[in-house]
């Protein structure tokens, strides 16, 4: 249980760092990156919906689901923060 948590925390840290760097460098010229983030978000969202609607999935899918839920929650928050930061 601790292993997947550590892996997901590492992923989150890397993602947040990348977003901060990208946001700092590109301000307004980051439209392709926005689409990439949106695509990643929708893939995660679809996977979460699939995992919630099909109860008897393999265990490794279950563990992966928590990471997907984190993506679904964190990405819009980060996106909103960067958008507001860019506007200001």
Automatic annotation (TrEMBL):
Keyword Membrane present in the record's keywords: the answer is: yes
Which keywords, in A-to-Z order, does the entry hold?
Answer: Membrane, Transmembrane, Transmembrane helix
Q: Where are the transmembrane segments?
A: 12-28, 34-54, 66-84
Q: What is this protein called?
A: Uncharacterized protein
Q: What is the lineage of its organism?
A: Bacteria, Pseudomonadati, Pseudomonadota, Alphaproteobacteria, Emcibacterales
């Amino acid at each position: 249980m601790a292993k997947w948590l550590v892996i997901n925390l590492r992923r989150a840290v890397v993602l947040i760092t990348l977003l901060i760097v990208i946001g700092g460098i590109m301000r307004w010229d980051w439209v392709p990156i926005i689409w990439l983030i949106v695509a990643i978000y929708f893939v995660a969202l679809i996977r979460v919906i699939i995992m919630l609607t099909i109860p008897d999935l393999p265990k490794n899918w279950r563990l992966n689901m928590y990471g997907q839920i984190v993506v679904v929650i964190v990405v819009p928050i980060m996106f909103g923060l960067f958008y507001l930061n860019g506007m200001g």
